[in-house]
Amino acid sequence: MGFKSAVEYKIDDVHVADVYAYRDGESIIVEVETGYLPPMFISRAEDYIEAKVAVKAIKYSCAADKFYIAMPSYLRLPMPQALMSSSVNLSELKLLGAKVREFFGDRWEAALLERGDRCRITGAMYVNIAKRSVNVVDFGE
């Protein structure tokens, strides 16, 4: 698609993006989510994964023009609705913040509430390894 890309791209002293791509002044970060779930959270799987995706969005989405979550095509992970459009719903963001706090702590809840109005998830990439294809779904406005 004409992008130059790097895997395990260092964003800053702490954060490393799974994939960073750029072309003509446009940058994209793609974080790969396999759906791994620690056994201790099995009874709250959807909430844990949604919070995990939200933390990834807060870590990486403001470091690029577009931010995608990539996952195997056979998974449909719960995506945090509060981070999927350009309009911010404060009550949705606070509910998501409570989930983030529960699984990842106060620091990430504070980061979400501070940056949630500008750090957004652009879309999802569904990767089919067998067919060597990627289906990109933009969440839009």
Average per-residue pLDDT, rounded, comes to 92
Identify the strand order in the major beta sheet. 1-2-3-4-5-6
Q: How many beta-strand segments?
A: 6
Strand content: 25-35%
What's the domain count?
1
Poorly predicted spans = none
Which structural category do the helix and sheet elements fall into? alpha/beta
Give the SSE string. EEEHEHHEE
Radius of gyration: 15 Å
Summarize the biggest pleated sheet: 6 strands, mixed
How many individual helices?
Answer: 3
Structure description:
This protein is of the alpha/beta class and 141 residues long. It has one domain. A 6-stranded mixed sheet has the order 1-2-3-4-5-6, covered by helices on one side. The mean pLDDT is 92.
List the helices and strands and how they pair.
Layout: E1 4-10, E2 16-23, E3 26-32, H1 45-60, E4 66-72, H2 90-104, H3 106-115, E5 123-128, E6 133-138
Parallel strand pairs: 3-4, 4-5
Antiparallel strand pairs: 1-2, 2-3, 5-6
Helix pairs in contact: 1-2, 2-3
Quick overview of this protein structure:
By secondary structure, the protein is an alpha/beta fold. The chain has helices spanning 45-60, 90-104, 106-115, and strands at residues 4-10, 16-23, 26-32, 66-72, 123-128, 133-138. It has a 6-stranded mixed beta sheet with strand order 1-2-3-4-5-6, covered by helices on one side.
Task: Name some characteristics of this structure.
single chain; about 140 residues; alpha/beta; 6-stranded mixed beta sheet; about 30% helix; about 30% strand
